[in-house]
Amino acid sequence: MRINCLACGHKVELDDAYDDFEGPVKCLCGAMLQIRTEEGMLKSIQAAEPLSRPAPKPKGLQGAAIP
């Protein structure tokens, strides 16, 4: 089965293991797609919400005394 990525249009190839599946699929462009299939037919597809990452801590003055 092939599905088109909603972000970039790339054709994502899925094997028979995805014939009855519900969950995320990642495209080569990095986009996450939430899909649901039944009996080898695509029933729904939507762009999944990106996972939020914690903000990186600033480097440099950690532990330094401020004059």
How would you describe the overall organization of this protein?
The chain is mainly β and 67 residues long. The protein has a domain at 2-47. The protein is 0% helix and 39% strand. The protein has no helices and 5 strands. β1 and β2 form a beta hairpin.
**Helices and strands: which structural class?**
mainly beta
Termini separation comes to 64 Å
Helicity range of the residues? under 10%
Shape: elongated
Strand fraction band?
Answer: 35-45%
Strand order of the largest sheet: 3-4-5
Count of distinct strands? 5
Key terms:
67 residues, mainly beta, three-stranded antiparallel beta sheet, two-stranded antiparallel ribbon, elongated
Question: How is this structure best summarized?
Answer:
The protein has 67 residues and is an all-beta fold. It has a domain at 2-47. The chain has strands at 2-4, 11-13, 21-26, 32-38, 41-47.
Blueprint of the fold:
Layout (H helix, E strand, L loop, with lengths): L1 E3 L6 E3 L7 E6 L5 E7 L2 E7 L20
